[in-house]
Amino acid sequence: xxxxxxxxxxxxxxxxxxxxxxxxxxxxxxxxxxxxxxxxxxxxxxxxxxxxxxxxxxxxxxxxxxxxxxxxxxxxxxxxxxxxxxxxxxxxxxxxxxxxxx
Length: 102
Fold this sequence. Notes:
Blueprint: E1 10-13, E2 16-19, E3 25-27, E4 58-59, E5 71-76, E6 86-91, E7 97-101
Antiparallel strand pairs: 1-2, 2-3, 4-5, 5-6, 6-7
């Protein structure tokens, strides 16, 4: 929120919005505040964003569910940029999806 007097950024302080520059105080009634509508966890991440999965590369790896030896694979950055990517696999036979951390 910006100060209506000087245009500076206002900060929240004891239920009010206060301008650091000119000292203008405005009551905070929840207007213009950001609200979290959903909470995501690692398990909620959409692994494939649509499209034709058959265009993904395949590799020889064993599916932990059905034992088939072929799976599609792709990489996804799930954590901070300085951490390694996570490799995902999806079985070409049963569609089971699992991940491998490096």
